[in-house]
Structure prediction request, 299 residues.
Amino acid sequence: MSQKILITGGTGLVGTALIPMLKRLGHEIVVLSRKKSKSDLYTVFEWDYKREYIEPEAFNGVDTVIHLAGASVAESKWTPERKDEIYNSRTKTSILLFKELEKGNHQVKTFIAASAIGIYGNDTGNIMVKETAPVGHDFLAHVTDAWETATNKIQTLGIRLVQLRVGVVLSPKGGALVELLKPPVAAPLGKGDQYMSWIHMTDLCNMFIEAIDNSDWEGPYNAVGPRPETNKELTKQAAKAFKKTFLPIPVPKLVLKIMLGEMAVIVIGGSKISSEKIQKAGFKFKFPKLQQALADLAR
Prediction:
């Protein structure tokens, strides 16, 4: 059944892939953006969490909210200002949406929030991690925990809440895959034996679509593929698929720390995250294996 769906972060990597898929399914899309712009795919309404402002008509007729907004964690070095932006762009936007929905003059029944596997900490080792695992102790775990705490408030309004803890998204248009293949030769990072819990962009978008349609889905789900791979293996396979030279000599941790600063924890650490819960909820992967996922993306 077609719905009217409001999306935040609609111009980001996931949003730009998800919106055309939702349109093809017959949904009407409205996007909250900091700047008014024109699009053939959706209507744009203005919002600004710093001013605590949302354009009044934004929620008119909306059935589902998909909350993707949040400053990129890997775009630039983690200065104190950048860390504030990473934190606030997730938590304060979530609180602003809650306050708007709390007013009650809307028909929103479902709220789907992006979250991240960073909630478990930047290095969970080789143990398969489920949704019941404790929160980690580093910066990104702190951010993600606060982000989920903010979106949890939505449940108090009688709205069904789904939180998708997104892993390493594979897309030829940006994100981890593009960064791995950017240097002249592709090489493992750090030791290279750290796990990367990856997901093909199409599968991730299908998870959001399933979360709209399936009213049994509620609470947090790990949005990752069923087969995590080591950094070395993922880099090697990506180089092969995109016809790049692969050098099996790892880039040392020290070099990464000099280049990236504190942000190096993203690539040095690893996490082996379980997709069991989302599969038991009925989700079927289109790209469960890394080789087929990369072959599709390289086309």
In short: The CA atoms of residues 57 and 248 lie 55 Å apart. The two ends are 32 Å apart (CA to CA). The chain has a mean pLDDT of 96. The chain is about 35% helix and 15% strand.
